[in-house]
Amino acid sequence: MAVGKMFNEIKPFISMIFLQVGFAGMYVVAVASLKKGMSHFILVVYRNIFATLFMAPFALYFERNTRSKLTLRIFLKITALAVLEPVLDQNFYFMGANYTSAGFASALVNMLPAITFVMATILRIERVVIKERRSQAKIIGTMITVAGALLMIMYNGPVVPFPWSKGMHHNSAESVHNGSNWLKGTFMVIISAFCWAGFFILQSNVLKSYPSEMSLTTLICLMGALLNGAITLVVEKGNMKPWAIGFDMRLFTCVYAGIVCSGVAYYVQGLVIKLRGPVFVTAFNPLCMIITALLGSFILGEQITLGSVLGAIIIVTGLYALIWGKGKDQLDKLSDSGATELPLSTVHDCKHDHSSHHHNGNGHGGSIKTNP
Questions:
Q1: Which of 115, 20, 123, 130 lies closest to 315, judged by CA?
Q2: Distance between alpha carbon 50 and the CA centroid of its chain, in Å?
Q3: Residue 368 phi, psi dihedral angles, 5° rounding
Q4: What is the pLDDT of residue 335?
């Protein structure tokens, strides 16, 4: 019994760790495909098509008797989710990563928890009391995170050498830093982070009125594929040549990104959000950053500068000050209610007094409350 309870408590942590490993792999293979000439619009369309095809059978079978009613209001919210994540976030992120590097983009997107916290506070779904130490930790952590991101943008410094990088052909970071593309890519990644944070917060609201996670995931990916497809047709001016992909890295990138980083990710994030809230979900990004930076330097020959390393360390410090504050919220909520954590597999069967979502319903911990 004790072992089962402990496993249920660590399920959210295990789920998010595996997701970050999956995201890291996607970032590297996606940048490799983009640098070989693949259109990011095409990548996003195929990614969401494969995600829809993967999730639809599970949604149709497992939620055939429990699926919530799809009203016009909910459909419009799902369309907004598709615009925020599959359309805006994914396109801006891939463009930004292509202009900079996989490692830099994944490090800069660590601003996501801080952005989610600020947006949730403004929308009054995140509890902040200035006199409380935990609220002070969340505010200070947010400020430190932003400072780390600014350092990464404004300071490059020398290249940090790795043992496996000797004699390897590099994509010179310095030559890119000197051009306008690097600054352009930086702002694109920041815009993508804002869109992703908005997606997490809106998803928490939608999950309250439409708690069918698999069906919601399928609909988001389907709408994302349709909207991106329409945009791509306009951008490519009817040229069908870019749509053709063979059995190569491009096809692998689309299938991998669709199944792991859209289909599975949206579903798992939705479940974890119901337990811990969007700030908890986004707080695991530093792990993705570390894995992506190492894979990027090893596979893509990307150089990592001292400014990126120092900025990443500062961002992680700020993030875990933010997480400490959220952890205190979690403990106090559980103490007040006498509640225990529920396994992820049963969370959608339970009624919650308060639910919230990121990047992403918090009925059993945290202080995030969504407004209907």
A1: 115
A2: 18
A3: -80, 130
A4: 59
- CA angle centred on 119, ends 347 and 15, rounded to 5°: 35
Backbone angles phi, psi at 171, to 5 degrees: -85, 100
Q: Cα separation of 247 and 44, whole Å?
A: 17
Residues 54, 102, 35, 85, CA torsion sign = positive
Cβ atoms 321, 136 nearer than 8 A:
no
pLDDT tens for residues 159-209?
Answer: 877 665 555 554 544 444 445 788 889 899 999 999 999 998 998 899 899
d(CA 52, CA 109): 25
Tokens 């890291």, residue located: 24
What would the DSSP string read from start to end of 92-109?
HHHHHHHHS-HHHHHHHG
* Among the listed residues 243, 272, 257, the one whose alpha carbon sits nearest the alpha carbon of residue 342: 272
Residues whose CB falls within 8 Å of the CB of residue 114, separated by 6 or more in sequence, listed in order:
141, 142, 145, 146, 318, 319, 322
Give residues with Cβ within 8 angstroms of 261, minimum separation 6. 22, 23, 26, 47
| End-to-end C-alpha distance for the chain, whole angstroms | 36
| CA–CA dist 296, 242 (Å, integer) | 25
In this prediction the pTM is: 0.74
Per DSSP, helices labelled H in the chain are 2-35, 40-62, 72-82, 90-99, 102-108, 112-122, 133-154, 173-177, 180-209, 213-235, 249-258, 265-276, 278-282, 285-299, 306-337
Number of neighbours of residue 337 by Cβ within 10 angstroms: 12
With CA atoms as reference, report the closest residue to 105 among 173, 33, 4, 49.
173
